[in-house]
Each structure stands twice: as structure tokens, then as C-alpha cells.
Design a protein that fits this description.
The chain is an all-alpha fold and 236 residues long. It has a domain of 104 residues. It contains twelve helices and no strands. Bound molecules: heme C (HEC) (5 copies). One heme C (HEC) binds next to α2, α3 and α8. One heme C binds next to α9 and α12.
Length: 236
């Protein structure tokens, strides 16, 4: 039999394999790096402009419903951030006060940035905290809320946060863990924004409280549909 391939060509498969491997590592590594910048991570808490916005005071102490400000959340995919006029409605002057604080005291200075923005017809440049990468389809808030998934499951105890931070990983496996077995996350639809109630209910469920378990099972029967696990549901 004649020699068709010279001997030096024996190393080619090895070279090709190493090359493919390195190329693969570079692609995966690069993708990983760019797809997961640090600011998508748990605990991310940027400093907000002006006096900031305190959910613990407004949603916690004052008991304002999330939908007072995030108005469109049950009808649209997007969770809207309120405009300056919403804040100005209460903070027209510095006299607004809780019983515990002085009229025109330190809070008046803290809310000055609202009146300044309103007078200039400017927007407040809130810094975004939760953000999925661009290769993930538009995340649908309305679908989740209407299925009985509370803000609590994805954003944690916002009503106790003086400054919002990211409480959950928002990774693909985090989405899929719930999509495979959503039953334990479901609450009645009229409770999705009542984070204290949801928190107490979840604590009862994990401690094995029979009444809480029974109500959770009822919810599964009445609410549960099938959350998607196919790639196309979340990716283009
Ligand atoms: C009085 C208005 C108001 C109320 C009530 C309110 N929010 Fe907000 N929310 C804001 C503003 C303003 C921001 C942007 C500034 C910031 O991130 O702190 C925001 C930001 C957020 C963010 C972070 C958005 C991002 O950038 O990722 C989440 C999550 C959130 N709110 C959830 C809630 C939940 C849950 C409730 C109810 C328990 C609630 N909010 C009640 C005004 C409000
Ligand atoms: C329904 C009325 C209401 C609305 C709407 C409202 N606030 Fe307030 N806010 C209050 C009250 C009441 C306080 C407590 C004031 C005090 O204790 O002196 C307060 C306090 C504050 C403070 C000072 C708290 C601190 O950190 O010590 C800031 C800053 C503030 N609000 C920003 C905002 C912004 C920004 C918005 C719009 C996204 C907004 N508020 C919407 C009622 C409101
Ligand atoms: C099933 C999980 C889930 C639930 C439930 C949920 N969120 Fe979100 N939220 C997210 C994710 C994921 C993002 C980032 C979306 C993106 O980047 O497109 C987000 C983003 C936000 C933002 C920032 C939007 C922006 O454009 O700046 C706000 C505000 C917000 N959520 C408020 C709420 C409120 C209020 C509730 C409850 C009434 C709620 N979310 C319920 C997962 C959830
Ligand atoms: C805590 C539970 C939970 C988490 C976390 C969660 N989901 Fe869901 N999701 C659901 C449930 C329940 C449904 C089913 C809604 C229905 O069929 O009525 C759903 C439905 C959906 C749908 C289908 C929407 C439609 O039009 O039918 C998409 C897309 C989706 N989720 C994306 C995501 C993404 C992306 C994440 C992660 C960033 C995520 N979900 C995290 C519970 C969750
Ligand atoms: C329920 C929604 C959902 C489904 C279904 C889903 N993904 Fe994802 N995927 C995500 C989210 C959200 C991210 C972003 C994760 C992050 O930011 O870390 C992601 C990230 C990715 C990444 C980037 C690397 C990584 O793991 O973070 C790849 C690749 C990917 N998905 C492929 C797929 C394939 C293939 C399927 C089908 C088998 C699929 N996805 C199904 C939500 C989903």
C-alpha cells in the first residue's frame, strides 16, 4: 500500500483538537464574561440620585401599594418606574411629615431634588438594578402576577429596603427551578403585592402548617398553568 499521507500529518488531528478546544474556551469564556457583568449579581445596590427613594418608608411604613407607582405592572410586560409628577403630588413643598419628624426638617432637604426636577420638567435618572441580558426576550411581569407569583418571589422584601438591592440571581436556572415546580410560589392574586402577608404565608408553608398547605394546594388547582421550559419562550 502506498503512503498517501506523509508522516508529519499524524499530528494534525491533535493540533486541530487543541485548536478547537482553545477556540471553544475563548468563545464560552467571552460569552460568560460579557453575558454576566457584575451588576447583574445578587446584592447589587447602586446609589440613587438626589435624596433617593426609600421603599421601607413608602411601601413599608406608609403602606403604599406597589401599584400606586408601578401602575402598569398587571397589564404590561414592563414594570414602569413612576414619573416626577407622582412624587411631586405628595412632595410639593417640604412640609410633608410623619409624626416622628419635624416639619421642614431634614426631610425637606432630602426631597428638594423632586421639586427641582419638576420645576425644570426634567426626569430623575434612577439607576436600574434588575436587568436581564439582551438575548433574553422581554420579561413578562403581567403574566407572572396574574398567575399568582408575588414580587416577593423575585425581588425579596422590597417593603423593608431603604435602598433597593437585587435579592435573587435572575439566572436561567433560577427561572427554570420555578418553572419546573411553581406550586410552592403561588399566592392568591389579590395578595401578590402584600409582601408581609406573602412572607408570613411562606414561613407557615415551610414549617408544615396544615392550613397553609391546604390553601397552597387549592391555589395549584385553581391557578396553575404550565410555565414554559422551551428555549423559544425566553430566547429569540
Ligand atoms: C411611591 C412610589 C413607589 C412605590 C409605592 C413602590 N415603588 Fe418600587 N420604585 C419606585 C421608584 C421611584 C424606583 C426607582 C428608584 C429605586 O430603584 O429605588 C423603584 C424601584 C423599584 C425596583 C427596582 C427597579 C430596578 O431598577 O431594577 C423594584 C424591584 C421595585 N421598585 C419594587 C416595588 C415593590 C415590590 C413595591 C411594593 C411593595 C414598590 N416597588 C412600591 C417607586 C415606588
Ligand atoms: C402618597 C404620598 C407620597 C408619595 C406619592 C411619595 N412620597 Fe416620599 N414621602 C412621603 C412621606 C409621608 C414621607 C415621610 C416624610 C417625613 O417623615 O417627614 C416621605 C419621605 C420621602 C423622602 C425622605 C425619606 C428619607 O429617606 O429620609 C424622600 C427622599 C422621598 N419621600 C422621595 C419620594 C420620591 C422620589 C417619590 C416618587 C417616586 C415619593 N417620595 C413619593 C409621602 C409620599
Ligand atoms: C417572576 C419574577 C418576577 C416577579 C413576580 C416580579 N418581578 Fe419585577 N423584575 C423581574 C425581572 C427578571 C426584572 C428584570 C427584567 C428585564 O431586565 O427585562 C424585573 C424588573 C423590575 C423593575 C425594573 C423595571 C425597569 O424597567 O426599570 C421593577 C420596577 C419591578 N421589576 C417591579 C416589580 C413589582 C412591583 C413586582 C410585583 C408587583 C414585580 N416586579 C414582580 C422579575 C420579577
Ligand atoms: C417563582 C416562580 C417563577 C419564577 C422565578 C419565574 N417564573 Fe416565569 N412563570 C411562572 C409561572 C407560574 C408562569 C405561568 C403563567 C401561566 O401560564 O399563566 C410563568 C410564565 C412565564 C412565561 C410565559 C409567558 C406567557 O406569555 O405565557 C415566560 C416567558 C416566563 N415565565 C419567563 C420567565 C423568566 C425569563 C424568568 C427568570 C428571569 C422567570 N420566568 C422566572 C413562574 C415563575
Ligand atoms: C424560563 C426562561 C428560560 C428558558 C425556558 C430558557 N432560558 Fe436560557 N436563559 C434565561 C435567562 C434569564 C438567562 C440569563 C442568565 C443570566 O443573566 O445569568 C439565560 C441564559 C442562557 C444562556 C447564556 C449562558 C447562561 O447559562 O447564562 C444560554 C446559552 C441559554 N440561556 C440557552 C438556553 C437554551 C438552549 C434553552 C432551551 C433548552 C434555554 N436557554 C431556555 C432564561 C431561559
Amino acid at each position: 500500500m502506498s503512503v498517501i499521507f506523509p508522516k508529519w500529518m499524524n499530528v494534525l488531528p491533535t493540533v486541530a483538537a487543541v485548536g478547537t478546544l482553545l477556540g471553544g474556551v475563548t468563545v464560552v469564556g467571552g460569552f460568560w464574561y460579557y453575558a454576566t457583568p457584575k451588576f447583574y449579581r445578587v446584592g447589587y445596590m447602586p446609589t440613587q440620585p438626589g435624596g433617593g427613594f426609600n421603599h421601607q418608608i413608602h411601601a413599608g411604613k406608609l403602606g403604599m401599594d406597589c401599584r400606586y407607582c408601578h401602575t402598569k405592572i398587571e397589564e404590561s410586560a414592563e414594570a414602569n418606574i413612576p414619573n416626577v409628577a407622582t412624587c411631586y403630588g405628595c412632595h410639593q413643598d417640604g412640609s410633608l411629615t410623619l409624626q416622628s419628624s419635624e416639619p421642614n426638617g431634614p426631610h425637606a432637604k432630602k426631597t428638594q431634588f423632586i421639586r427641582e426636577a419638576f420645576a425644570k420638567d426634567a426626569t430623575i435618572e434612577w439607576r436600574r438594578i434588575h436587568k436581564l441580558p439582551d438575548y433574553v426576550r422581554n420579561f413578562p411581569h403581567s403574566v407572572h402576577l396574574n398567575a399568582g407569583v408575588s414580587c416577593f418571589s423575585c425581588h425579596g422584601r422590597i417593603d423593608t429596603m431603604p435602598v433597593v438591592f437585587q435579592a435573587e440571581a435572575l439566572s436561567m436556572s433560577w427561572c427554570l427551578d420555578c418553572h419546573r415546580d411553581p406550586a410552592s410560589a403561588l399566592v392568591p392574586k389579590d395578595k401578590v403585592t402584600d409582601l408581609q402577608w406573602v412572607h408570613d404565608q411562606m414561613t407557615l408553608r415551610t414549617s408544615g402548617d396544615p392550613a397553609a398547605k391546604a390553601s397552597a394546594e387549592q391555589l395549584v388547582d385553581s391557578l396553575l398553568q404550565a410555565p414554559p421550559q422551551n428555549c423559544g419562550a425566553c430566547h429569540y
